[in-house]
Amino acid sequence: MRLVLVVIIAYLIGSIPFGYLIVRATGGGDVRETGSGGTGATNVSRRAGKAAGIFTLILDAAKGALAVVVAKSIFNGDSTDWLISAAAIAVILGHIFPVWLRLHGGKGVATGAGALVLLAPMAILAAAVIFGAVVALTKFVSLGSILAALTITLFVWLFAQPEIYVTPLLTSAVLGALLIVFAHRENIKRLLRGTEPRISDLKR
Questions:
Q1: How many domains does the chain have?
Q2: Alpha-carbon distance 151 to 4, whole Å?
Q3: How buried is residue 20: exposed, middle or buried, by Cβ count under 10 Å (0-12/13-18/19+)?
Q4: Which of 29, 43, 59, 166 has the fewest Cβ atoms within 10 Å of its own Cβ atom?
Q5: Domain range for residue 156?
Q6: Distance of alpha carbon 93 from alpha carbon 91, whole angstroms
């Protein structure tokens, strides 16, 4: 019963559409009508400026971390590795498929990072380096996000601490990465066609 409760809470936390709400509050209309159609930081930046995008990034990451914190508090330190991993996956699902926006949300990158930073901080740091390097070299945020997601499992395995049960953590990393790549499916098509917008297109 507690597992169901944690998954529902994590999903609902993930479903909070911060990017959508921030753009609406700034008079920018529906962020989903811009760029990739997502509600994440990059698309918010295109619609409402970089400050709004940074604010969205922070809030989206915070809700990922909050879902893990809530899950840990509900189980009061019991042996709950798989349950915490379930919360991490559920919060990403909520962000990508928010119930409030008819299952049309963001890409899950910031929210996934926020969840995993509490579970595997070194892995997230390494993936962030990959993301930054790819974006710096190519100017494609989507490509950096995809490659960071695909490498996160390797980094989780490399940096796993001996006291941590690795299998649940790897499972959440793999499933989270698959969800993020799936959410970027239209970006992948545009990258292959050469029509994906670059970071230089962001609104100042």
A1: 1
A2: 30
A3: buried
A4: 29
A5: 2-201
A6: 5
In three-state secondary structure terms, 70 is helix
Structure-token match 């811009």, residue found: 34
Distances (CA, A) of 146 to 59, 77, 88, 162: 21, 33, 18, 28
Q: What is the mean pLDDT of the chain?
A: 89
Three-class HEC string of 107-175: CCHHHHHHHHCCCCHHHHHHHHHHHHHHHHHHCCHHHHHHHHHHHHHHHHHHHCCCCCCHHHHHHHHHH
Token pair, residue 10, equals 């994590």
Q: Is the alpha carbon torsion for 115, 60, 124, 170 positive or negative? A: positive
105-136: per-residue pLDDT in tens? 999 999 999 999 988 999 999 999 999 999 99
Q: How far apart are CA 143 and CA 135, in angstroms?
A: 7
What is the percent of the chain where pLDDT is above 90?
Answer: 64
- Per-residue pLDDT band for 137 (boundaries 50, 70, 90) equals very high
Do residues 70 and 94 lie in contact, with contact meaning Cβ atoms separated by under 8 Å? no
Residues across the chain? 204
pLDDT in tens, 48-105: 888 999 999 999 999 999 999 998 888 765 557 888 899 999 999 999 999 999 899 9
Instruction: Please answer whether residues 113 and 124 qualify as being in contact, where contact means their C-beta atoms are separated by less than 8 angstroms.
Output: yes
